[in-house]
Amino acid sequence: MSASLFNRYIWLVNIISRRGKISLEEINECWRISPYNESHDTIPERTFHRHKEAIKTLFDVDIKCDRSDSNRYYIANEEELENNYMRKWLLGTFAVDQLSREAKHLKGRILFEDIPSGQQYLEQIIEAMRDNRTLRLHYRTFGDSFSNTEVEPYCVKVYARRWYMLSRSLSDRKLRIYALDRIVELQISENSFVLPRDFDAETYFAGSFGVIVNNGCKREIIRISVDKNQRNYLRTLPLHSSQKEIQTDEEYSVFEYFLSPTIDFCQALLSLGDSAQVLSPNHLREQMRAVIERMGTLYK
What we know:
The protein is α+β, with helices and mostly antiparallel strands. The chain folds into three domains: 3-106; 119-196, SH3 type barrels; 220-298, 2-Layer Sandwich (Alpha-Beta Plaits), CATH 3.30.70. The protein has helices at residues 3-19, 24-32, 45-59, 78-82, 85-102, 122-131, 201-205, 231-236, 263-270, 282-298, and strands at residues 63-66, 72-75, 133-140, 146-159, 162-169, 175-179, 183-192, 220-227, 244-248, 252-259, 276-280. The strands form three sheets. It has a five-stranded antiparallel sheet, covered by helices on one side. The longest helix has 18 residues, at 85-102. The model has no long low-confidence stretch (mean pLDDT 86).
């Protein structure tokens, strides 16, 4: 699957979602002037239906035709689409990119957060997930050791400006996380695999803050106190989907989480500085205190 075809799929979902309902003729009117359509051609009806099927497979977006409304197309599972953070992020990012391409005079005034590397492998990985094909990786760790391995790609996730792939290694059948920016070479193999029916990516990562899962760290209730100047940031951008504001005072709020207190989450708490403190559990509070003390010695 080429990058241009991938962009066309996302463009189709975006234009139908924005319009609510739209005919194929109206889609083609928009497509003719789209910055992604360099040839200014139209989408034949047969091709459009193939795109619909591919979009259903890739993004689980169900495009239906309302024959009672002049054969206008709409997204049947729009509500489900709204609740899927990955698809919302992907389509939202594409929508901003499309607007910035169309409004070229705004160049330099719309700034994106850069994801340094690894995106060149994203299309191949998604293609392998779609076709249930294994991937052969030449992988480099931060210790500069290299390995060659074959994996079953389960899902991809972006976190802290890096793309990650969750895969089952064929060598030991364990689930492992691979950072895309550490992949040296990647190939889609001819070997197929079956994704377990009970696997759900959101459920797998539900108890984690970042990408570290089951690292000897059990899920537990964590409570933090945040001062009045910081709490609005957490209200509008929660640290985790389990976040609840359980106590509010004039000077502070108490937020509760249910997750594994891995290093990723501890680093997120440290980024709040002296505006937040861990209240419980006590072992996490002591762990944070020890880290802060070690940090303090660096500035003596």
